[in-house]
Design brief:
4 helices, single chain, alpha+beta, Cytidine Deaminase, domain 2
Length: 161
């Protein structure tokens, strides 16, 4: 009996090439890059965005992983790390917006960050930070989950703690 297996080839198609020379050294650099490259300020729904970095912290790719609704977006580790692998990333930074203007991370944001941190360890792709962005009458506000929840980046972190 002959079995036919599907053959698939997965890859990115370069839609355009953008010149961006700045290194990503902190949360502000990452947000600035996301705003300049992906026009994050114009979003009216939550989006999950990925900045892929090489071993020198230069951007080697940028992706919008998901677009949700006004209060949530969904992005599984599979989608996030698929893009990271296709960009040949050594590390990644995730940035998502809260259209409400309040950048306070939700309990779900924290839980997802823990899962992604551990998944990245398994793949040897470091999750540098997960940043939440909100914009209100006082301007752009950002919250770095790495800064507000440093225990996620400790060696003892698990998904359940």
């Amino acid at each position: 009996m002959t079995t036919f297996l599907p053959f698939r080839k997965v890859g990115f198609v370069k839609e355009e090439r953008i010149e961006y020379g700045a290194k990503i050294l902190n949360a502000s650099d990452a947000v600035r890059a996301c705003i300049e490259i992906l026009d994050l300020r114009s979003e009216v729904v939550e989006t999950m965005n990925l900045i892929a970095l090489d071993n020198r912290k230069n951007i080697c790719g940028v992706s919008t992983i998901s677009r949700g609704v006004s209060t949530t977006t969904f992005a599984s580790p599979k989608e996030i790390f698929r893009d990271a692998l296709l960009h040949n990333a050594e590390s990644i930074i995730l940035i998502h917006n809260h259209p409400s203007g309040d950048p306070t991370p939700s309990a779900e944001d924290i839980c997802v960050t823990k899962q992604l941190r551990l998944a990245g360890k398994l793949l040897s792709i470091n999750l540098e930070d997960h940043i939440v962005v909100g914009e209100g009458t006082e301007g752009l506000k950002i919250v770095s989950i790495r800064n507000t929840n440093p225990e996620i980046w400790s060696n003892r972190a698990t998904v359940n703690n």
